[in-house]
Amino acid sequence: MQWSDVINDPSLRDLPYKIELDARGRIVMSPASNRHGIQQAKLVRLLAGVLTHGEIATECSIGTHAGVKVADVVWMSPEFLRRYGDSTPYPQAPELCVEILSPSNANSEIEEKIRFYLGYGAQEVWTVDEQGQIRLFGAEGQRQVSALPGVTGRLAI
Q1: Tell me, what DSSP letter sits at residue 139?
Q2: Domains of the chain by range and CATH?
Q3: pTM for this prediction
Q4: Between 20 and 30 A from 153 (CA), which of 50, 88, 118, 126?
Q5: Contacts of 106 (CB under 8 A, 6+ apart)
Q6: Most distant CA atoms of the chain, gap in Å
Q7: For residue 143, which of 125, 122, 120 has the smallest C-alpha distance?
Q8: Does residue 25 register a pLDDT over 80?
């Protein structure tokens, strides 16, 4: 299955799940809780206050060699948007990709997503735990402060 098949399939439009594709084109679904949606909204507000240029998006699809991964929240620079517009899925990860952790997430799954996003061009990846604590990651591993312009201090939502 291709990502365009998923997007255009009317039977998949109203599912209460986050949908991704694995390397074999199989659909992978993760249930989304209301807490997840609230944390997404809080992240959008946080990012809008510190990254005043570019665009913020939720549920952003990124094509990888292992299928399509969907970041919960992303920030894209004007340069990224000029290059890729609204192509779906993006062939490269936006500069910032954020994953909101759920009880169903295995550590290995999140570590793999961090590697995918960084390997596909993200400058930074954030994870947000159930208490709203944000952990930052770059190519060197976990960071204490963000390398993105305008983002300062310890972050939490």
Answers
A1: T
A2: 32-143 (3.90.1570.10)
A3: 0.84
A4: 118
A5: none
A6: 44
A7: 125
A8: no
